Amino acid sequence: GSRLVVLAPVARGGNPCRSDVRRVQSRQGVGCGVLRTERAPRRGRGGAVTYADFIARKSRFVESSGFVVDESALSPQLFPYQRDLVRWALRRGRAALFCQTGLGKTAMQLEWARHVCARTGGKVLILAPLAVAAQTVREGAKFCVDVRHARKPEDVGATVTVTNYDILDRFDPREFAGIVLDESSILKSFA
């Protein structure tokens, strides 16, 4: 099945989730990132708001908050499509990678984390299910990214740390320059 990886740098000195949010124009605009100018909603029969306008008004577009990395700075171990996705995620700042099983999401999130650490001088926290944490540490060694598995704040590494969702409350997200939500479909169990 699909696995979702969400990559989000945390703003220093502020709310990690605060961003300049604007609405998109239409369902087609959501994928394209077209910004909407405010206008009165279209009305359907009987004066009701149309479904398309209702959905468009609920859609949000977050401005890019990332940085540009030259392709030559990326790991040569990544496939071209992985390099493209990592560069896109770094440029966006806050991004989600929806990739099928076997396409190397762990390698991509580690490369993203490596660049966020290098750019900010800060640390990255990877949240993952317990079974995935050890795999992330092994993949880090393969891609020359120092990853430490932490069960408590004292175990946090100098750069990339992986822990599981069940013990997230032990960590302060403000201490990290970036956060990765690996296998983030697990979040629906916490709601």
Describe this structure in words.
The protein is 29% helix and 19% strand. The chain is of the alpha/beta class and 191 residues long. It has 5 helices and 8 strands; from the N terminus they run E-E-H-H-E-H-E-H-E-H-E-E-E.
Please tag this protein with its features.
191 residues, alpha/beta, six-stranded mixed beta sheet, two-stranded antiparallel sheet, 5 helices, 19% strand
Per-chain topology:
Blueprint: E1 2-9, E2 21-22, H1 27-32, H2 51-58, E3 61-62, H3 80-92, E4 95-100, H4 105-120, E5 124-128, H5 130-142, E6 147-149, E7 160-164, E8 178-182
Parallel strand pairs: 5-7, 5-8, 6-7
Antiparallel strand pairs: 1-4, 1-8, 2-3
Q: Taking Cα atoms only, what radius of gyration do you get, to the nearest Å?
A: 19 Å
The count of DSSP E runs of length 2 or more, i.e. the number of strands, is 8
Overall geometry:
globular
**SSE order in H/E notation?**
EEHHEHEHEHEEE
Spans of at least 5 consecutive residues whose pLDDT stays below 50 are: 11-39
The proportion of strand residues reads: 15-25%
The largest sheet is:
6 strands, mixed
Mean pLDDT: 79
Q: Tally the helices: what do you get?
A: 5
Order of strands in the sheet with the most strands? 4-1-8-5-7-6
Distance between the termini: 22 Å
Kindly state the percentage of residues in helix. 25-40%
Secondary structure category: alpha/beta
